[in-house]
Backbone:
């Protein structure tokens, strides 16, 4: 596999908390999948978990070079944890189609957070000639 793109994003956790206070469930359902919401709800640091996933989604859109526009939905990008706890990226809809056109085979993501900030780094991988 070869690295073909990188994206990174930093999110202010209190900003996410204010968005939830202002827009409630409407914001949560627009931005986060049901799985992401359930995961965050099961943790004492819910806002940090949501902010981390928000940052990861932004990082994925940055590595694709699209930003959030057109037919792209926030929920086209899902961040789930593997059994070991490592975050995994799942793509559906328009984002999945864009990834296919770009030759992206896998996206690796790393997330970290504090009470104030969440940061995520995403790396797009494609098959190299050596993989064949």
Residues:
């Amino acid at each position: 596999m070869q690295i073909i793109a990188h994206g990174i994003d930093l999110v202010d956790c209190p900003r996410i908390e204010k968005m939830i206070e202002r827009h409630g469930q409407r914001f949560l359902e627009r931005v986060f999948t049901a799985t992401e919401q359930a995961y965050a709800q099961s943790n004492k640091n819910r806002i940090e978990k949501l902010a981390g996933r928000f940052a990861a989604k932004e990082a994925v859109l940055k590595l694709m070079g699209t930003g959030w526009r057109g037919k792209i939905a926030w929920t086209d990008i899902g961040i789930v944890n593997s059994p070991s706890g490592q975050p995994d990226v799942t793509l559906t809809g328009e984002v999945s189609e864009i990834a296919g056109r770009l030759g992206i085979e896998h996206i690796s993501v790393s997330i970290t957070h504090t009470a104030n900030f969440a940061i995520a780094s995403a790396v797009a991988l494609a098959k190299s000639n050596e993989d064949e």
In short: The longest helix spans residues 13-31.
